[in-house]
Amino acid sequence: MAKKLLRRRKPDRTQQIRWAVQAAFLALNVWIGAQFYLWVRHYETGGAWPRVDRPPGVEGWLPIASLMNLKVLLLEGRLPAVHPAGVFLLIAFLAISLLLRKSFCSWLCPVGTVSEWLWRFGRQTFRRNFRLPRWADWPLRSLKYILLGLFLYAVGSMSVTAIEAFLNGPYGIIADVKMLNFFRFLSETAAIVLGVLILASVFIQNFWCRYMCPYGALFGLLARFSPARIRRDPEICIDCAKCAQACPSLLPVDKLITVRSPECTGCYDCVAICPAEGALWMSAAGRKRRLPAWGMAAAIALLFLGIVGYARITDRWHTYLPDQVYFQLVPRANEFSHP
Q1: Which residues are CB-contacts of 57 (< 8 A; sequence separation ≥ 6)?
Q2: C-beta of residue 143 within 8 angstroms of C-beta of residue 217
Q3: What does the domain layout of the chain look like in residue ranges?
Q4: For 2, which DSSP code?
Q5: Which residues is 134 bridged to in the sheet?
C-alpha cells in the first residue's frame, strides 16, 4: 500500500545557507592567499614591495606541521613558536568534526567547495555524474586512509626534539612559502596530475575528497562519534529514494534509519530534496532533537571563531620571527629540500 505524501509547507533553505557559509570561507581563504603572496614578495624583492603583515591563517594549509605542533602541545603542554595558528585551526576543525559530523568538508573546506562546483558543472553540462563500479570504488576509497596512516605514523614516530628541530629549521620555517611556490611555479608533472584531478572531479562527485584526501579521512573517523546524524522516519518516508540520489557521498540514505557512515559530510543535500514533511532531518543529540541548517551554520561559526578568537586574545596566533630571518630564507625557499 502506497504511503500518502505529506508535502512540506515551507520552501527548503538549507542549501542556500550552506552555500553562503562556503562562499564566505572561500573568500576568506582568497584574501589570506592574496595577503600572503604580497608578504612573500616583500621579502623576495628585498623590501621593494610594500610590507604587509603575514596572515597566520595560511597555516591552515599546513596540516602536517599542525599535527606536529599538536603532538608537542599534547605531550609537553606548551605551544611551539613556529606556526602556532595551524594548531588552533586544526583543533577547531577536529572539534567541528567530532560535534557536527564531517561538516568541515562540505561547509568550510575550499577544496571541497571547488570540488562541488566541478561535479555540479559536470552534471549540468553532461546531464549526469558517473559512479565507479563497486570493485574499483572500495579499493580507491581506502587510499585516503592509507595516506592518513602514513602521515600519522611519520608524525607519531618523531620525538618532540625532532619535531622542534624540523619546524625551527629553514624548511619548517618557510613551509608555507614552499607551498605557495609549488602552485606559483607548477612543474609539468604537477600540472598534469592537477589537470587529471580536476577532470576527474567534473565527472565523478568529489573525486579528491572521496578517494584521496587524508584530512577528510581523519575528520570522517572522528565524525563516527558525532552526536549529529541524519535520521529517517520510515513511517513518514514515501520511499522515493531521492535522498540517496542526491547524496554526494553515494550513501543509501533511503535504506537507513540513522546515517553513521564516516563518508557523511552533513551537507543536508538529502534533507533539502526530501519531499515528505518530517521524513528526514539532522538530529543534534537524540532522535527527536533536530538541528536545522542555520543551527549547523551557527555552531560551526561559534566553534571556529571561538577557538581562533581564544588564540588571538591569548597572543598564541602569530609566529614571531625577526625580519632578517625571512629576508634570508624566503628568496631561497626553493633551495631547501625536505630534511
Answers
A1: 28, 29, 32, 85, 89
A2: no
A3: 14-227+294-333
A4: P
A5: none
